[in-house]
Write a structure and sequence with these properties.
- With 432 residues, this protein is of the alpha/beta class.
- The chain folds into three domains: 152 residues, Rossmann fold, CATH 3.40.50.720; 162 residues, Dihydrodipicolinate Reductase, domain 2 (2-Layer Sandwich); 85 residues, Alpha-Beta Plaits.
- Helix content is 36%, strand content 25%.
- The protein has 14 helices and 17 strands.
- Strands 7, 8, 9, 10, 11, 12, 13, 14, 15, 16 and 17 form an eleven-stranded mixed β-sheet that branches. The protein has a six-stranded parallel β-sheet with strand order 3-2-1-4-5-6, with helices on both faces.
- The longest helix is centred in the last third of the chain and has 20 residues.
Amino acid sequence: MINIGIIGFGTVGTGTAGILLKNRDLLKQRTGIDINLRKIADLDIKRDRGIKVPKGVLTTKAEELFADPSIHIIVELIGGTTIAKEMILRAIRAGKHIVTANKALLATHGIEIFKAAEKAGVEVGFEAAVAGGIPIIKVLREGLVANRIKAVYGIINGTTNYILSKMSAEKAQFSDVLKEAQRLGYAEADPTYDIEGIDSAHKLAILASIAFGRQFTIKDVYREGISWVSPLDIEFSRELGCKIKLLGITKETNGQIELRVHPTMVPEELLISKVEGVFNAVYVEGDAVGSTLYYGRGAGDLPTGSAVVSDIVDIARDITANSVGRLPAFSRSQKPMPLMKMDDVMSMYYFRFSAIDKPGVLSKISGILGKYNISIASVIQRDRMEGKAVPLVVLTHLAKEKGVVSAMKEINKLSIVAGKTVFIRVEGKEHA
């Protein structure tokens, strides 16, 4: 028998406990291991969670789990980067294996936690930390182990994908859709972590660490949010045959690793552009397997609980087979590739200028773009209001970020441009 202790009886803790209790016989049938939920620690053990927990399982004292020699695996589901870190390190010192869904903690203090676990000879499972019910960690660590990973693109935050999907479908303003998302429970009362790309950056740091054999942290990720995306930009993106998604992007380019989260225009013919609502999707490109896409629910009690239980089962198998440490948390690269500076990233770009409608405006703008080696692929100027500011949309060929930023600074100072220029990076095939 493998005994489990859970710290945190919130949404994911309830889902995990429910799966362990309901599917105990199924898990034993499939694995040959009796996985027993021995303890759940939470400050509030009185509130009804909608599941029936056996007598004696609930406690308000996490110390009971650390001190119980019969508990093999401790599942941390309280979140945050302070108390959760302390709990995990205490559990490791007590010789317990760890399962966590805490992406913020791993993206901030993962190096310390994994070193402590390795020293103590225990395992850390973290499948639930990225993309909920999608087994993307297992895909990268095991399913695609024979591949050199070339790129990972992810819609890895359901809240932002819901907001952008609704803005696109209903031509609605960001603030209105955010309020609806909060009312439906898709967004928190304080949505900052979601809408500013912080949650996606945590997850991308974990994915990149696995994909490229170097441990990245949240500080390594370039990040932009979606609060400035307007219905007008979504409308123009549609006209250009694209959709706007908040993407986490990591890829190898010329021996360096790109690591960035930002709104991105994606051609409609690509499958990842068709992912709508609160769903997540992760595209992975390997040198042997080619392009693969993984899709599913990225959050929620049962989808995330499913990923937690998957880690519990993996560790239980390793314990019973006396093969703890069979799979390292991250591959170890012989020569870790350096992180690419954002200035050096090459991308295609969408620009929306608010330009005064008069002769010579486009030539002045294109002249500055040419000065910074930015080549124009197409132009849209739909409205004509002589002497007044109108949208002027430019789509570029591949250009360097540093040149784009410099060009925007120079263009924004022109008297023929009213207001700050909007630019969005474009991923997909180069335009002819």
